[in-house]
Design goal:
heterodimer, A: about 220 residues, alpha/beta, Glutaconate Coenzyme A-transferase, ten-stranded mixed β-sheet, three-stranded mixed β-sheet, 4 helices, B: about 230 residues, three-stranded antiparallel β-sheet, about 20% helix, globular, disordered C terminus, CoA_trans_fam_I (chain B), 3-oxoadipate CoA-transferase, alpha subunit (chain B), NagB/RpiA_transferase-like (chain B), CoA_transf_BS (chain B), CoA-transferase activity (chain B)
Amino acid sequence: MQPWSRTQMAARAAQDIPDGWYCNLGIGMPTLIADHIPGGREVVLHSENGILGMGPAPEKGREDAWLINAGKQPVTLHPGGSYFHHADSFAMIRGGHIDLCVLGAFEVAQNGDIANWATSENDTAPAVGGAMDLAAGAKRVWVMMEHTTKDGRPKLVEACSYPLTAMKAVTRIYTNLAVLDVTAEGFALRDLAPGVTLDHLRSVTAAPLHDARETAGA
Amino acid sequence: MIDKIVRDMAAAMEGVKDGSTVLVGGFGAAGQPDDLIEGLIEQGATDLTIVANNAGTGRTGLARLMELGRVRKIICSFPRSVGSVVFEELYKAGKLELEIVPQGTLAERMRAAGAGIPAFFTPTAAGTKLGQGKETREFGGRPHVMELALPGDVALVEAWEADRWGNLTYRRSGRNFNPVMAMAAKLTIVQAQKIVELGAIEGERVVTPGIFVDRVLNVKRGAPWGEADAA
């Protein structure tokens, strides 16, 4: 069994982003997708703090303290990029103008519910940032995460146990083991990492899933 | 003649009352009005409600204002970040009230306040803990929660250029919350890196028109110091 590495997961997700999409890539793993957009495609990256057309990190020594992303890391501006204030930035998100948002998650339920901001009902001061706006507002929400927690608990579940970020928001999930869609019939398998069997995948997924690969078993 | 340029910090902070709601611009270190926060610490107003994206880091700026016991409540989207030690201490000790607001809802509540809209409905937070207790209504078959406008008594804003009418530009991602906060407060106080002649900021370049600005203080502080925590 050869689970995908974080880089491979990012590259796998990047393959599925078509030319011309406006995308917001969440802090952490989803950020890696930016480095793997296939050549020849123009994908415009959005950052919550008011940047459209965000470019890669600057070379060392050329950081600009005035130009940071939502993770507060120095970035650059792509030619054609623009700056705007927070209300406009979230109008892009909440008004359904962003084609795709990729988020990390603690759990995703079979109906597309996502939990990614608070790890317990008793955490009285969790940080939500822009997660709820993105999950509720983007045209599509994909999740990129490990298939299970560090101690092996499934993160794809029938119903989320952690506090929700948004209801019925997620349509696709990229994990280290598989690519799955959220459908009216529950999780649908689209792709498996090399050597991962359907039985193994089912054993680490806490919800029913059906094989929807174009060439099932390949 | 209109001249919103003030000569010193004391003039900038004059009349900020105890119990005020203070909107503080900035995202990370970019666009954060550090000098005005210091000025507010010096000025002495207390029992404040602070509206900002984060709840302060380290022991300076907002964190210091909180540590001095001058903040009753904080309204923000991301209270916990690397270095939010003062927030953690005060919150754990029950000395600080907290309202967590999704970042887009936070920006929109202030924009609404500035635009005379008392409340609005949004799908953000519907069906979540942050939507609990809020009026909910369905539009297009989807639940939405009602959010109230969030006006400020005072806004502290950092700008790049300003003229004597209070027209402002911002620097790159230093714009962030500053323009919506400038709209949303009764008294908008700006620290600007450069004061320019009236007319030097061409009409097309004005980001915040002077009507939203009350006082401008020239603070040449140079680039903000980058910080590496999450939001």
